[in-house]
Amino acid sequence: MATRQSDSRFFSSPTRGGNSPDHQFSRGLVPIAFGAAALLLLAGAMAFFYAPIDADQGMRQKIFYLHVPLAIVVLGGFVASGIMAIQYLRTRDRAWDLRSYVAIHLSLILGVAVLLTGAIWAKTSWGVYWEWKEPTLVSFLIVFLLYAVYQPMRFAIEDPDRQAQSAAVYAIVCGAFVPLNFMAVRMATSLVHPRVLSATGENMPGEMRLTFYTALIGFALLWVALWKFELTAKSLKMRLGKLRAQVVS
Amino acid sequence: MTGRKPPGVFAAAATILRKDLRLELRTLETLTATLIFTTSTFVVFHFALSRDQLDGDLAAGVFWVTILFASALTINRLLANERSQGGYEALLLSPIDRNALLVAKVGFLFLALTVLEIFAFAAYTLLLLGPGLSTEMLALIPVCLLANLGLATIGTIVSALATDSNARELLVPLMTLPLFTPLLIAAAEATTPLLAIEPNVVDLGQWLGMMALYDAVFVLLASAIFEYIVED
């Protein structure tokens, strides 16, 4: 009961625009989901059968095709949620608030996977689960902790309009914080430790790079598919709640 | 009342800031509370690290972590007076730019932190700091000022965000600590050589630049979005 109550806050005022919001959210969901599945299968096959075995790290390096694209997609999702929040403040259309909320929610969940795969990779290549001298890992943790506060902050506000407004402002502040934080952490550590992840740069062999980009696009599509799915599910649930309330009254 | 123009942003901000400073000078509520807090924290650090004297990176880290926690304390209270006495609604009803409140509160927090740091550093040199006072430590002034501007700007945004929620005291440290981390990195790195046994002022430039950039981004961001937080 409690969750339904909090969900219904997004559309407690009538939405603008004529067509029903759930229809607008679900547009293109099926092809995007199939595209994501196909590309991720392809990327998995490429990682094991096409991309060369890393001379330095061997098989351990294969987790790179999972960890790095996922991390990039998660960070992109965080920054995108900030842009959606700007859209909400400009248009006052609750659909943008919902988009921003679901984007953060989804990126946070996938962020756990990034931290776990990062820890596994760190353990296999450096022998420790956590490496403070690796700036990308540390920055990611700080960003993750910041966005983890989004949800408790949001639902600690009773009034639905204020809730949407404060959540949007927080999402924008965090979105601006992400690049600055990466810069600061990198400045503090770059002189101490060799850049292990510089393999993502220009000196990566062509087969590796192609596999990496396939995985990156695959994960980006997966993110969009999950995002659209959650948006559709949430807005349908809200509409159901509203209809139920109408029937009861 | 006809024909009277409403005051500009800075004139209105100066009025609010004067009100806050007068309140603070009469009660000394913020300064005494944060000063007692910082001194207690130094004592706690003495036992936790079981060290009588600190220098270098450890000294810089302890000092800035203490200031960070003390600032979270101040941020909690920043809009509390307005909220509890109904002054908040009066401010929103008055015909002034919403950013006047932002400027006034950033100004108040900035001043409160600067005064706190002066007293806290004096207590620090007495209690924990290994190296004695030297002219190199004057370079702490720009470090503190730049850090304070960032802490004050982010603190005001967070305070305004948290003031609507029913979990204010819980949320303020949760939101501020990650947001302050880049400032903490730069401030602690810049302070480390200044508090070394043999203090030196080498390469402060990149850390001051980092803090200046961080401050500039959040000052611009705050002035663009603050009206959305305090809107009613």
Largest interface: pair, residues per side: A-B, 29 and 31 residues
Radius of gyration of chain A: 20 Å
SSE string of chain B: HHHHHHHHH
Mean pLDDT metric of chain B: 89
Structure annotation, total helices of chain B: 9
Terminal residue distance of chain B: 25 Å
Structural class of chain A: mainly alpha
The percent range for helix content of chain B is over 70%
Name the beta content range of chain B: under 5%
- Roughly what fraction of the amino acids of chain A lie in strands? under 5%
Name the features.
heterodimer; A: 249 residues; 9 helices; 75% helix; globular; disordered N terminus; B: 232 residues; mainly alpha
Structural write-up:
The complex is a heterodimer of chains A (249) and B (232). Chain A is an all-alpha fold. Chain A is built from 9 helices and no strands. Chain A has helices at residues 2-7, 21-26, 29-49, 64-91, 94-126, 135-148, 150-155, 160-189, 206-248. In chain A, helix 4 crosses helix 9. The two termini of chain A are 18 Å apart. The model of chain A is unreliable at 1-9 and 12-18 (pLDDT under 50). Chain B is mainly α and 232 residues long. Chain B has one domain (9-230). Chain B is built from 9 helices and no strands. Chain B has helices at 9-27, 29-49, 56-77, 80-85, 87-93, 99-127, 140-162, 168-194, 205-230. In chain B, helix 7 runs parallel beside helix 9. The two termini of chain B are 25 Å apart. The relative contact order of chain B is 0.15. At the A-B interface, helix 6 and helix 8 of A face helix 7, helix 8 and helix 9 of B.
